Amino acid sequence: DCLLSRGLGDVYKRQFLKDGESIYNTLLVSKPGAGKTTCLRDCIRSLSNGKEGWEGMKICVVDERSEIAACHLGIPQNDMGIRTDVLSGCGKSEGMMLMLRSMSPQIIAVDELGGKKDFQAVEQAACSGVRILGTVHADTVEELWEKPLKKWMKRGIFERFILIRHNRSGERDFQVFNGKREQLC
């Protein structure tokens, strides 16, 4: 097993997310409390600002419960990056459609996908050429194919899965899988 225990930076350095000038449709996967939302926020900021070897991208965040950006009076309290627009307090599926129609994003980021409407919106965004960066609750990548979202996983919309776990010292470890559930690292 190749665990990326130095943090999310290794995922960028080794370019597991990069797909040409954009990213793969990616799900961050873990059980509750393992840091999916924190990692999502880090990815959004890095992809928005750009990093070594990465040009910044226009990202729209649908932040239903204001857990990602922590908006107060419409202003994100967390650093979301210079090319990020945030829609807070709106349902995920409705928010994704609003952002898709009005903001011309390169990436739509959303936390805790799970419902049928969420994945219908993801599918519509992906079919429109927008990349998706999201999170979902599961303990393993295989569990995604056992959940109600099995139907959506089989459609092959997501090309990368990053499994997040805590190691014995409490640090996050990352395992990267492709859309066929083959471990890349």
Secondary structure: elements and pairs:
Blueprint: H1 8-13, E1 18-19, E2 22-23, E3 26-30, H2 36-49, E4 59-63, E5 71-72, E6 75-76, E7 84-88, H3 92-102, E8 107-110, H4 116-127, E9 131-137, H5 150-154, E10 160-166, E11 172-178
Parallel strand pairs: 3-9, 3-10, 4-7, 4-8, 8-9
Antiparallel strand pairs: 1-2, 5-6, 10-11
Helix pairs in contact: 3-4
Structural commentary:
There is one protein chain. 26% of the residues lie in helices and 26% in strands. The chain is an alpha/beta fold. A 7-stranded mixed sheet has the order 7-4-8-9-3-10-11, with helices on both faces. The termini are close together.
Which descriptors apply to this entry?
26% helix, 185 residues, 5 helices, alpha/beta
Helix run count: 5
Q: Major sheet: size, sense and barrel closure? A: 7 strands, mixed
How far apart are the first and last residues' alpha carbons, in Å?
Answer: 7 Å
Largest sheet, spatial ordering of strands? 7-4-8-9-3-10-11
Whole-number mean pLDDT: 88
Gyration radius, to the nearest Å? 15 Å
Strand content: 25-35%
Shape: globular
By helix and strand content, what is the structural category? alpha/beta
Number of strands: 11
As an assembly, this protein is single chain
Question: Could you state the order of secondary-structure elements as H and E?
Answer: HEEEHEEEEHEHEHEE
Instruction: State the helicity in percent bands.
Output: 25-40%
Poorly predicted regions: 1-5
